[in-house]
Amino acid sequence: MSRIDLFKQHLDEKRAVKIIAGIDNFDIENIKKVVSAAEQSGASAVDICAREDIVSQIRSMTDMPIFVSSVVPSELVRAVDLGADGIEVGNFDTLYKDGKSFSADEVLSIVKETKSLLGDRKVFFCVTIPGEISTADQIELAHKLESMGIDLIQTEGHYSSNNSMSGARALMDRAELTISNTIELCRNVDIPVMTATGINPTTAPFAFAAGASAIGCGSCVNKLSSDLAMVATCSSLVEIAKKNASKVAELV
Predict the structure, then answer these.
(1) pLDDT one-digit tens code per residue, 70-94
(2) Taking the model in full, what pTM does it have?
(3) Rounded distance, CA 194 to CA 196, Å?
(4) How many angstroms separate the CA atoms of 109 and 98, rounded?
(5) Closest Cα partner for 110 from 134, 131, 87?
(6) How many CB atoms lie within 10 A of CB 92?
(7) Residue 178 near residue 196 (C-beta atoms within 8 A)
(8) What helix, strand, coil percent values describe the chain, rounded to 5?
(9) How many other β-carbons are positioned within 10 Å of the β-carbon of residue 32?
């Protein structure tokens, strides 16, 4: 079984947990802690930035499936050369904070260029559906990605720098939006859906109940200062995912 096959198996069982170190996280010591916590807890995969030295170091320390996120096609292809098991166009969330935005056409353009650069090479390909575009546009984009052979789509909640709410309330609002996006996409496409943004041990059950086959969890892990807390949080997420898989199996 190849490394990515483990993630695919968990995806089929609707219990995949991807732990996200962060597209803009270049703190190698923090990333190593996140990866170690994910590995110890039995998570399905980790997601890291596309910087070459970091991809190489993390590949050398773990046999876990590694996803690399970027919006730069050449970075994604280079990550595959360095041993990435999956690539993701997206995790736009942190980029919004820098004033960047992504339309459906821009996402498609990045995907097409990346696939062109990959040529005949086969790699697990995930794409984030921008949470700031309309629901109708999200569904249309998802259909186009599905027709292109993309393996997985990831939802997100819309980021707004003008949001007056903060703390737990803001997080729950964004989690609610990404979960509602999950419901709409699961109703309209056959491609598996991963729910991200604001997903933690409290909101993860709602993501799976919405139809997600996977959850992407970042700040609830990578912002923790304690190694023990990271492992505990990852383990909680994995247990929630396993319970969902059991429920799904009972219904089959």
Answers:
(1) 999 999 999 999 999 999 998 787 6
(2) 0.93
(3) 7
(4) 21
(5) 87
(6) 23
(7) yes
(8) 50, 15, 35
(9) 16
